[in-house]
Amino acid sequence: MSHHTAGIDILVSEVGPRDGLQSIPSIMPTEAKKAWISAAADAGLREIEVGSFVPAKLLPQLADTAEIVAHAKTIPGLTVAVLVPNARGAEAAIAAGADKITLPLSVSETHSLANLRRTHEQVIDEAVSIAGLIRAQPANHRPHFEGSLSTVFGCTLEGAIPDAQIARLAAALMDAGCDEVGLSDTTGYADPSAVKRLITLVRNVVGDAALTGIHLHNTRGLGLANALAALEAGLTTLDSSLGGIGGCPFAPGASGNIVTEDLVFMLEAMGLRTGIDIERLLKVREIVSAALPDEDMYGFLPDAGLPLGFAPPKQMEYV
Amino acid sequence: MSHHTAGIDILVSEVGPRDGLQSIPSIMPTEAKKAWISAAADAGLREIEVGSFVPAKLLPQLADTAEIVAHAKTIPGLTVAVLVPNARGAEAAIAAGADKITLPLSVSETHSLANLRRTHEQVIDEAVSIAGLIRAQPANHRPHFEGSLSTVFGCTLEGAIPDAQIARLAAALMDAGCDEVGLSDTTGYADPSAVKRLITLVRNVVGDAALTGIHLHNTRGLGLANALAALEAGLTTLDSSLGGIGGCPFAPGASGNIVTEDLVFMLEAMGLRTGIDIERLLKVREIVSAALPDEDMYGFLPDAGLPLGFAPPKQMEYV
């Protein structure tokens, strides 16, 4: 969870510059990424996952992540998040000054080997090393450390993952020194019941305060219904991607993040404050589509527009 | 609500042959409509809105509704529903043998005048006449009569409609002799909070048993999230359209029914029994797309396919 959530009910964490850009063949110019991040922050986004510290030969789309972090760090009040696959990536993330570091751990070991080329035990060892690196920083320079349980709603290679395995890995991440864990529907297999069930399962292991966020895909159209289920279960951080770009390049057929524009519309319409100005958010699309002329952008709200006279109820309690 | 809901938790009411076909320029051949309805029933759908008794010059796409009703009535266990704009339409529906008659009443009077060319008072008068026609039938030939509150989540012409006006019109429909009322998000303005709020509002007026169904659009991407909210509020009948075709031709920019395939996937994944075989349902698309080569069909599940090893939990309680 972000450190900058004053005055908002739900933190929308924009993952487009990382999850979106890593999943498409086009490489966005560094200046366009900076313009995107600045415009998104201007529209009110408080947390942006700006890149990933992975070898440039694996993901050339994100080779400029250090420069992007440095730019994002100049924006007041923005939580600058990055993904890292291992301790080496975390070292670079800390050096660059990231506020939040996420290490994915695929609860499917088959997917873990395919995606991170590591067994569960090896990923947990990396988590231990990362926690050590963070503890070695001065107290006011320690990034928040999240372990993200990916393929937690099922894997395109293994199918369903046993609850006991998920619980064991959630506990192992916390024991390794993570500040919290997150849930990730890498494959778009989640449904609202499964979302609620797994939130309960993992919270019973790590405690309520150590599970606040979820990363959902819209692969089978249930993305916003799953987001609603997560809200109802008490989560307060939801990942999404502008224009819905991105997904997971190592889980075939699993593309499609939930669309930031549609998610923010749902939340604001429900009277949940995001701090985001929808009209300004819609304008951010122009920056992204101009810089990625060969990529499709998705979203229903951008096509349909806001309802006539739309004004979100102020601080209305969600019923 | 259908009379044929034994063994299922949620009734998915397919409205594609009516709402879908009335909203597109192509006219589907009568034989294709019959094949669609038969295949949908074979896949397990228990209620299908097969047409509308409106003048052929207004909706030539539905001019064969009497013949379609006659065909649908040969299918055992199927509730054959139709829409009517007035008592003349209801007379034709009764003569054809429809099991369920729905009269839309737009809670926005501006939209009512544009859509049905009638004031609220005139529509209520039609409801009184229709109830009289139904009462005059032998007891075992009386169709179920629903008054559908359309534009209830807001109107593209008027914006938000006052609660008191909605409550008054719901009561007036019941007083006129409707068996139940339904809610219809004609314009795609609904959000999950509004869904729950309006269900409570209308149930407080008509009683829980007289509001069981909702008609949602996916105009702004919230269709399935709104469906989830409706389920959680206790509704048991959800309208949807195969391939998401259709919407409201008289509410500009309001196209897009929720997609039957995606809805059924969500419900079954949640352990809610629909009685519908998803694999067979997906095959019904081939009939529709072959008969409507110029129309787009939507849906995420049809593109992504079922999750690996997908088997809905049996009679699992929704958490």
UniProtKB/TrEMBL annotation, chains A, B:
Keyword field contains Transit peptide: no
Every Pyruvate carboxyltransferase domain range: 10-282
TM region(s), chain numbering: none
Coiled-coil stretches: none
UniProt-listed CDD domains: DRE_TIM_HMGL
Single Gene Ontology BP annotation: ketone body biosynthetic process
Keyword hit for Metal-binding: yes
Superkingdom of the source species: Bacteria
Assigned keywords, A-Z: Lyase, Metal-binding
GO MF annotation: an example: hydroxymethylglutaryl-CoA lyase activity
InterPro entries: Aldolase_TIM, HMGL, PYR_CT
Family of the protein in this entry: Belongs to the HMG-CoA lyase family.
Cited NCBIfam families: PRK05692.1
Identification of the protein by name: Hydroxymethylglutaryl-CoA lyase
Organism of origin: Sphingobium phenoxybenzoativorans
Origin organism lineage: Bacteria, Pseudomonadati, Pseudomonadota, Alphaproteobacteria, Sphingomonadales
